[in-house]
């Protein structure tokens, strides 16, 4: 059956935003918070268990061979996912929480297409690629705020961006790709240790509406897993769909199974295409200058990237104009309201968490396909929007491109679920 849109539309943000101080430090071991962001009965608590001050697992050093051997080498194979993830998905499906929206198909240079009889603009589908907005998802920041965030890291070009942000006392949200974390572990740590907020941009950057429910979970959960195991147990709260491609089904899987919420954007300079000749630095700078000198309501979330030097330079060029025009900058995940991580309290305290169920690392090295080179494809965006949309269909689909390297990671090394359950029972 088609899932009622209203049931999916629990607000991520209130109509009146209260901006938080976005400058913060990252420390793996902190006091236990009183509560998690997600309700205690949410499935994410079974997948990433709350434990005492440490979760009883000695994690491998980030970047070491042991660490690298802990995750899929390419697009995750759903037949090798932890059973706990599959069980959580099956439960959500059985309870009618996942809409029965068909998968799309797509070919290069075209938007994903739905089967005949399924209107992407209808509330039963509501595809962001087709300009439809699902109520409650984050498209804008509070008035006068510039939400700083970057897609497709970590990459070698990220280092200059991270250093620039740190030198200027600014924080940002890094929407990271799982395979890029594996391939650039020290850059990943540099982003985290420099105060960057970590969010998901999937594991290998696919069109999410083309995937079945199991593959959606795999793309998101493995990225959550590598971040969790590499940051003292942090569980990201936010994700951004590659190309902005998602609908009510994709959103429900991410939210109902993994507790994830969406942050999109309201402007797109198409900086991702500078390297391929799709746009020019001059065009990007012109667009940024126009938007930064424009109205301050709603606040800005500009789609920006860190996967090549030109995109990083475009932000550096725009930075003085952000300041000169009086915008208040902040990490977009912080401006969206509340905590950046699902197991973080309002003061930034994080609970190291358990991941349910160990699996055999030797079974996960095969994968199904790699994410290599550049891919050109549509990317949705808009030039203006409302922070908590009431179903207004604003925005614009645009052609997009992204370059991502292949991965080399395999299974995960979690244990101690019984200890966590005992802790919860206390």
From TrEMBL:
Keywords tagged on the record: Carbohydrate metabolism, Cell membrane, Cell wall biogenesis/degradation, Chitin degradation, Cobalt, Glycoprotein, GPI-anchor, Lipoprotein, Membrane, Polysaccharide degradation, Signal
Membrane-crossing segments per the record: none
Cleaved signal peptide residues: 1-15
A family per Pfam: Polysacc_deac_1
UniProt entry tagged with the keyword Signal: yes
Domain NodB homology, chain residue ranges per copy: 144-330
Needed co-factor(s): Co(2+)
Enzyme Commission code: 3.5.1.41
Top-tier EC class: hydrolase
Subcellular location as annotated: Cell membrane
Superkingdom of the organism of origin: Eukaryota
Regions of compositional bias (Low complexity) in chain numbering: 366-399
Broad class of where this protein is predominantly found: membrane
Chain segments carrying region Disordered: 363-399
Keyword Lipoprotein among record annotations: yes
Catalytic reaction equation(s): [(1->4)-N-acetyl-beta-D-glucosaminyl](n) + n H2O = chitosan + n acetate
UniProt xrefs under SUPFAM superfamilies: Glycoside hydrolase/deacetylase
Membrane topology, as annotated: Lipid-anchor; GPI-anchor
Stated name of the protein: chitin deacetylase
Organism the protein comes from: Hohenbuehelia grisea
């Amino acid at each position: 059956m088609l899932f009622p849109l209203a049931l999916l539309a629990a607000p991520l943000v209130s109509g009146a935003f209260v901006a938080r101080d976005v400058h913060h430090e990252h420390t793996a071991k902190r006091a236990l918070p009183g509560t998690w962001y997600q309700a205690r009965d949410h499935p994410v608590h079974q997948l990433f268990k709350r434990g005492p001050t440490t979760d009883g697992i000695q994690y491998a050093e980030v970047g070491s061979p042991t660490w690298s051997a802990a995750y899929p080498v390419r697009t995750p194979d759903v037949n090798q996912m932890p059973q706990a993830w599959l069980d959580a998905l099956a439960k959500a499906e059985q309870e009618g929480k996942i809409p029965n929206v068909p998968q799309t198909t797509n070919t290069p240079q075209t938007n994903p297409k739905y089967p005949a009889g399924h209107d992407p603009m209808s509330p039963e589908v509501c595809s962001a690629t087709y300009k439809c907005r699902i109520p409650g998802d984050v498209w804008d920041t509070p008035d006068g705020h510039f939400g700083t965030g970057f897609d497709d890291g970590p990459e070698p070009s990220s280092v200059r961006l991270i250093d620039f942000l740190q030198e200027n006392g600014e924080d940002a949200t890094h929407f990271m790709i799982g395979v890029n974390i594996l391939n650039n572990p020290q850059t990943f740590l540099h982003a985290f240790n420099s105060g960057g907020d970590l969010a998901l941009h999937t594991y290998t950057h696919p069109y999410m509406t083309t995937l079945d429910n199991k593959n959606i979970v795999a793309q998101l959960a493995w990225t959550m897993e590598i971040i969790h195991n590499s940051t003292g147990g942090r569980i990201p709260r936010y994700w951004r769909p590659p190309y902005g491609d998602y609908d009510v089904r994709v959103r429900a899987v991410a939210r109902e199974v993994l507790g994830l919420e969406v942050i999109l954007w309201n402007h797109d300079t198409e900086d991702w295409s500078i390297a391929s000749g799709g746009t020019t630095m001059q065009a990007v700078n012109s667009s940024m200058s126009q938007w930064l000198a424009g109205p301050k309501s709603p606040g800005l979330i500009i789609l920006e990237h860190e996967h090549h030097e030109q995109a990083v330079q475009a932000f550096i060029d725009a930075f003085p104009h952000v300041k000169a025009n009086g915008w208040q900058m902040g990490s977009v995940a912080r401006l969206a309201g509340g905590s950046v991580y699902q197991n973080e309290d309002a003061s930034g305290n994080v609970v190291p968490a358990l991941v349910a169920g160990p699996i055999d690392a030797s079974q996960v090295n095969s994968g199904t396909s790699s994410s290599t080179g550049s891919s050109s494809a549509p990317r949705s965006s808009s030039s203006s929007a409302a922070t908590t949309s009431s179903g207004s269909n604003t925005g614009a689909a645009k052609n997009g491109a992204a370059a991502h390297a292949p991965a080399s990671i395999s299974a995960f090394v979690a244990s101690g679920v019984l200890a966590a359950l005992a802790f919860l029972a206390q």
